[in-house]
Design goal:
Shape: rod-shaped
Largest sheet: 4 strands, antiparallel
Oligomer: single chain
Strand order of the largest sheet: 1-2-4-3
Order of helices and strands: HHHEEHEE
Helix content: 55-70%
Distance between the termini: 92 Å
Strand content: 15-25%
Number of strands: 4
Amino acid sequence: MKAHWQQLEQKEKQLISILIATLLLAGGYWLLWQPLQNDIVNTQRKVNVETQTLADVKALGQKITDLQGGQVNRADAGDLNQLVSRSAARNKIAITRIQAKSDSLQIWIDDVNFNQLIAWLEKLNKQYGVEIKNIDVSVSDTKGMVKVRRLQLGKRT
């Protein structure tokens, strides 16, 4: 190989050197720089999504805090299970599962619009005296939608 290199003319040696340098630069760009830039963009997108999720959860927490301190407009709104079921149906919220406990209900909802959920919970609290005892919410794959993994409701005493 060294003997072959020695036999080449100066112009050929220069062309080969330029080709090697160009290949090294292009390889460095496509193998190092471009993947790093793609990772930076993807990480920034993930940060933005997580920031929005955090803002949604903070808003939900504030609404829950506000709902727990609300006033009851009706003294007796009937059976909690029936009340929640009817109210959810009127508000077009599809409850996946309801489990009655002694003095509370546990509810699961697959996908529901976040704002619709908050408005429904606020209405339950203010009109019927139903308070949120515990809630576990996760972000759905669809923008603006959440999954209620567990919502525990009870009557305010």
